[in-house]
Protein backbone atom coordinates (compact mmCIF):
# COMPACT_ATOMS: atom_id res chain seq x y z
CA UNK A 1 0.00 0.00 0.00
CA UNK A 2 2.85 2.35 0.85
CA UNK A 3 4.35 1.99 -2.67
CA UNK A 4 0.95 2.81 -4.18
CA UNK A 5 0.83 6.12 -2.25
CA UNK A 6 4.37 7.02 -3.36
CA UNK A 7 3.49 6.20 -7.00
CA UNK A 8 0.32 8.35 -6.82
CA UNK A 9 2.27 11.26 -5.32
CA UNK A 10 4.92 11.04 -8.07
CA UNK A 11 2.25 10.90 -10.77
CA UNK A 12 0.54 13.99 -9.30
CA UNK A 13 3.81 15.98 -9.18
CA UNK A 14 4.83 15.01 -12.75
CA UNK A 15 1.38 15.87 -14.10
CA UNK A 16 1.76 19.53 -13.05
CA UNK A 17 3.13 21.91 -15.68
CA UNK A 18 6.67 22.96 -14.91
CA UNK A 19 7.91 26.26 -16.34
CA UNK A 20 11.47 27.44 -16.26
CA UNK A 21 11.77 31.03 -15.11
CA UNK A 22 12.53 33.64 -17.75
CA UNK A 23 15.78 35.50 -17.35
CA UNK A 24 16.07 39.05 -18.57
CA UNK A 25 18.40 39.50 -21.55
CA UNK A 26 18.71 35.78 -22.26
CA UNK A 27 17.04 33.47 -24.76
CA UNK A 28 15.88 30.07 -23.52
CA UNK A 29 16.91 26.91 -25.31
CA UNK A 30 13.70 25.37 -26.75
CA UNK A 31 14.66 21.87 -25.54
CA UNK A 32 16.59 22.41 -22.30
CA UNK A 33 14.87 24.79 -19.89
CA UNK A 34 17.90 25.52 -17.74
CA UNK A 35 20.04 26.58 -20.71
CA UNK A 36 20.00 30.21 -21.82
CA UNK A 37 21.81 32.09 -24.57
CA UNK A 38 23.00 35.64 -24.56
CA UNK A 39 22.87 37.25 -28.02
CA UNK A 40 24.60 40.46 -28.93
CA UNK A 41 24.83 42.34 -32.16
CA UNK A 42 28.13 42.40 -33.98
CA UNK A 43 29.29 44.84 -36.58
CA UNK A 44 29.13 43.39 -40.12
CA UNK A 45 32.41 41.95 -41.33
CA UNK A 46 32.54 43.03 -44.97
CA UNK A 47 34.90 41.53 -47.49
CA UNK A 48 35.49 42.47 -51.13
CA UNK A 49 32.11 42.17 -52.86
CA UNK A 50 30.29 41.16 -49.64
CA UNK A 51 28.85 43.83 -47.32
CA UNK A 52 27.98 40.97 -44.93
CA UNK A 53 29.13 37.36 -44.63
CA UNK A 54 26.03 35.79 -46.22
CA UNK A 55 23.30 36.95 -48.58
CA UNK A 56 22.51 38.38 -52.02
CA UNK A 57 23.87 41.83 -52.82
CA UNK A 58 23.83 44.28 -55.73
CA UNK A 59 26.86 44.43 -57.98
CA UNK A 60 29.28 47.25 -57.09
CA UNK A 61 29.24 48.48 -60.71
CA UNK A 62 26.12 50.70 -60.88
CA UNK A 63 25.62 49.81 -64.55
CA UNK A 64 25.70 46.05 -63.86
CA UNK A 65 21.99 45.88 -63.02
CA UNK A 66 21.68 42.39 -64.51
CA UNK A 67 24.31 40.91 -62.16
CA UNK A 68 24.54 40.40 -58.41
CA UNK A 69 26.73 38.78 -55.78
CA UNK A 70 25.81 35.76 -53.69
CA UNK A 71 28.03 35.71 -50.59
CA UNK A 72 28.60 32.55 -48.57
CA UNK A 73 30.91 32.82 -45.56
CA UNK A 74 32.26 36.10 -46.96
CA UNK A 75 33.19 34.63 -50.35
CA UNK A 76 31.52 36.53 -53.24
CA UNK A 77 30.17 34.71 -56.30
CA UNK A 78 29.10 36.91 -59.22
CA UNK A 79 25.92 35.63 -60.83
CA UNK A 80 23.84 36.90 -63.77
CA UNK A 81 20.11 37.49 -63.77
CA UNK A 82 18.19 35.73 -66.55
CA UNK A 83 18.06 37.77 -69.79
CA UNK A 84 15.85 40.85 -69.52
CA UNK A 85 15.79 40.91 -65.71
CA UNK A 86 17.53 43.22 -63.23
CA UNK A 87 18.59 42.55 -59.66
CA UNK A 88 16.28 44.16 -57.08
CA UNK A 89 18.17 44.77 -53.83
CA UNK A 90 14.94 45.28 -51.84
CA UNK A 91 13.72 41.74 -52.55
CA UNK A 92 17.10 40.13 -53.34
CA UNK A 93 15.61 38.72 -56.54
CA UNK A 94 15.86 39.29 -60.27
CA UNK A 95 12.79 41.09 -61.56
CA UNK A 96 11.48 42.93 -64.62
CA UNK A 97 13.19 46.25 -65.37
CA UNK A 98 10.00 48.25 -64.70
CA UNK A 99 9.66 46.72 -61.21
CA UNK A 100 13.21 47.51 -60.09
CA UNK A 101 14.04 50.89 -58.55
CA UNK A 102 17.45 51.21 -60.24
CA UNK A 103 18.58 53.34 -63.14
CA UNK A 104 20.72 51.54 -65.66
CA UNK A 105 21.19 53.57 -68.79
CA UNK A 106 23.79 51.33 -70.34
CA UNK A 107 24.25 47.73 -69.23
CA UNK A 108 27.87 46.63 -69.17
CA UNK A 109 28.49 43.42 -71.08
CA UNK A 110 30.83 40.63 -70.10
CA UNK A 111 33.93 40.63 -72.29
CA UNK A 112 36.32 37.70 -72.71
CA UNK A 113 40.09 38.24 -72.68
CA UNK A 114 40.16 38.14 -76.50
CA UNK A 115 37.45 40.83 -76.79
CA UNK A 116 34.42 38.63 -77.59
CA UNK A 117 31.04 39.77 -76.27
CA UNK A 118 27.66 38.16 -76.85
CA UNK A 119 25.69 39.97 -79.56
CA UNK A 120 22.28 41.45 -78.76
CA UNK A 121 19.13 39.74 -79.93
CA UNK A 122 17.99 36.17 -80.40
CA UNK A 123 19.87 33.64 -82.51
CA UNK A 124 17.66 31.24 -84.42
CA UNK A 125 18.66 27.60 -84.61
CA UNK A 126 18.23 25.25 -87.60
CA UNK A 127 14.65 24.47 -86.52
CA UNK A 128 13.65 28.17 -86.45
CA UNK A 129 13.56 28.45 -82.65
CA UNK A 130 15.63 30.89 -80.61
CA UNK A 131 18.65 29.16 -79.06
CA UNK A 132 18.87 29.56 -75.26
CA UNK A 133 22.69 29.23 -75.32
CA UNK A 134 23.78 30.25 -78.84
CA UNK A 135 27.25 29.44 -80.14
CA UNK A 136 29.48 31.46 -82.47
CA UNK A 137 32.60 30.56 -84.47
CA UNK A 138 36.04 31.72 -83.40
CA UNK A 139 37.34 34.13 -86.10
CA UNK A 140 40.76 32.45 -86.45
CA UNK A 141 40.56 28.88 -85.12
CA UNK A 142 38.20 26.32 -86.71
CA UNK A 143 38.29 24.07 -83.63
CA UNK A 144 37.22 26.80 -81.19
CA UNK A 145 33.91 28.58 -80.68
CA UNK A 146 32.08 30.79 -78.20
CA UNK A 147 29.01 29.95 -76.12
CA UNK A 148 26.67 32.65 -74.82
CA UNK A 149 25.03 31.23 -71.68
CA UNK A 150 21.45 32.50 -71.50
CA UNK A 151 22.36 34.63 -74.50
CA UNK A 152 24.44 37.07 -72.42
CA UNK A 153 27.33 35.36 -70.61
CA UNK A 154 30.26 34.57 -72.97
CA UNK A 155 32.35 31.45 -72.53
CA UNK A 156 35.01 29.75 -74.66
CA UNK A 157 34.39 26.33 -76.17
CA UNK A 158 36.42 23.85 -78.17
CA UNK A 159 35.59 20.88 -80.37
CA UNK A 160 37.26 17.53 -79.70
CA UNK A 161 40.41 16.69 -81.64
CA UNK A 162 39.59 15.88 -85.26
CA UNK A 163 36.43 18.03 -85.32
CA UNK A 164 35.77 21.68 -86.19
CA UNK A 165 32.93 24.03 -85.33
CA UNK A 166 30.13 24.20 -87.92
CA UNK A 167 28.23 27.49 -87.64
CA UNK A 168 25.41 26.18 -89.88
CA UNK A 169 24.53 23.36 -87.47
CA UNK A 170 25.85 25.01 -84.27
CA UNK A 171 27.77 21.80 -83.55
CA UNK A 172 31.20 20.23 -83.95
CA UNK A 173 31.54 18.44 -87.29
CA UNK A 174 33.95 16.77 -89.69
CA UNK A 175 36.38 19.31 -91.25
CA UNK A 176 35.39 18.39 -94.81
CA UNK A 177 31.80 19.51 -94.06
CA UNK A 178 32.84 23.06 -93.03
CA UNK A 179 33.86 25.47 -95.78
CA UNK A 180 37.27 27.01 -95.07
CA UNK A 181 38.18 24.39 -92.46
CA UNK A 182 38.60 21.36 -94.75
CA UNK A 183 42.39 21.25 -94.26
CA UNK A 184 42.47 22.40 -90.65
CA UNK A 185 44.07 19.19 -89.34
CA UNK A 186 46.26 18.56 -92.38
CA UNK A 187 49.74 17.64 -91.20
CA UNK A 188 48.66 17.58 -87.54
CA UNK A 189 48.24 14.34 -85.61
CA UNK A 190 44.66 13.86 -84.41
CA UNK A 191 43.06 11.16 -82.30
CA UNK A 192 41.62 9.64 -85.50
CA UNK A 193 44.85 9.41 -87.46
CA UNK A 194 47.36 8.66 -84.69
CA UNK A 195 49.08 5.34 -85.12
CA UNK A 196 49.12 3.05 -82.10
CA UNK A 197 52.52 2.81 -80.41
CA UNK A 198 54.34 -0.47 -80.86
CA UNK A 199 55.43 -2.19 -77.69
Automatic annotation (TrEMBL):
Q: Where is the signal peptide?
A: 1-15
- Residue ranges of the Chitin-binding type-2 domain? 47-106, 115-183
Pfam annotation, one family: CBM_14
Q: Keywords assigned by UniProt?
A: Chitin-binding, Disulfide bond, Glycoprotein, Repeat, Signal
Q: Name one GO molecular function term.
A: chitin binding
Q: Report the superkingdom from the record.
A: Eukaryota
Per the record, its GO cellular-component terms are: extracellular region
Know the name of this protein?
Jg12693 protein
Q: Source species, please?
A: Pararge aegeria aegeria
Amino acid sequence: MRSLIIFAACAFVSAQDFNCPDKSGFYADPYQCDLYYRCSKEEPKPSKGCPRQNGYFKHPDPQACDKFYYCAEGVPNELPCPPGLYFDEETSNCDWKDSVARTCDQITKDVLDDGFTCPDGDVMGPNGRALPHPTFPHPEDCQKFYICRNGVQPQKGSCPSGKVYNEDTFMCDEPEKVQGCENYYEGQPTEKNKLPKKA
